[in-house]
Amino acid sequence: MRWKNAALLALAVLAVGCSSNSKKELPPAELPKFTEEVKLQKEWSRSIGSGQGDIYNMLEPVVDGEQIFAADVEGLVVAMDRMTGKVAWKQELDVPVSGAVAAGYGMIVVGTLKGEVIALDSSSGEEKWRARVPSEVLSAPAISSDTVLVQTQDDTLVALDAYSGQQRWIFENTPAVLTLRGTGSPLLTNQLAIAGLSSGKVVALDVQRGIPVWEQRVAIPQGRSELDRIVDIDGGLLLSGGQLYVVTYQGRVAALDLQSGRVIWQREASSSMGVAQGFGNVYVTLASGTVESIDERSASALWTNDALARRQLSSPAVFSSYVAFGDFEGYLHLISQVDGRFVGRTRIDSDGLRARPLVVGDWLYAFGNGGKLVALTIK
């Protein structure tokens, strides 16, 4: 399954990067010049092993309480004080990590390329349990008081007991014939386990039994070739105020009602990244490199910023009055939530910045592809 998915990724990337005719591919846009309005201050920086690696991992760090946890592709897991960067503990796992770190309820959980889920004690790094799942885990699990929910590369959802790692239920889906490499992270509420699939659907299951509660198709595959029909939901779901926000590749961005799955609004979009929400707007970084602000009430675009075309933008995050995101050269960009103008920029890691920036209060954490983890505040 791993090799099959790697081949599918190569085909998908080729399709995105090349046209069907012999026209020359356009290069990434040059960095636009602007008058800096916001200065970002580096509070601390740490190197987290080998970072993301070369297989397009999205190893996003996570904050729980006063600690921040990060992992690298080779299995190094590090716990640090989120305000100072002081290392509390390190743990070397014996398997390559591919799924981002999840934290909560006294433990952290990671997924691996070998189809394992590993839980560690958040205070000491001591291993609590390991569980086997059907295939590789490419996103962060979700954690509740008694459940760890995992989504695997083949669109299977597995609920594990949070204390023992024993399987509670499994829900299998048929993945699309051709998919991008990756999955979004699932969500857990008190009643529901929710995930976006490679078929362009969002499913909600009863969290105790794994029985479907509702299913909603966000994007309909279109086109003659399987490449044209890719509609993956890879950027994860955003839950805010009883609404789910989701975006698909070659499909739509939409808001769904949490309890029923009913579509509240939708508009055409293409992104393999997630969305951010703030000021009554939804922000999305499109596959083209355009950043778009969408009014939640009218579903109309309030502004677009296309100055970073083809720069492989990360998922966006709302930071103070701004939208923050990274690019393939490792620059972190800040643009205004009001009108999309550039207000700040700093370089994090020359190997690139594809993981979503992590925002906690007045702090932003950026984790570069090469392993550099940087804590920033607004000066």
UniProtKB/TrEMBL annotation:
Membrane topology: Lipid-anchor
Predominant location category: membrane
Pfam families associated with the record: PQQ_2 (PF13360)
Protein family per UniProt: Belongs to the BamB family.
Function: Part of the outer membrane protein assembly complex, which is involved in assembly and insertion of beta-barrel proteins into the outer membrane.
Quaternary structure and partners: Part of the Bam complex.
Name under which the protein is recorded: Outer membrane protein assembly factor BamB
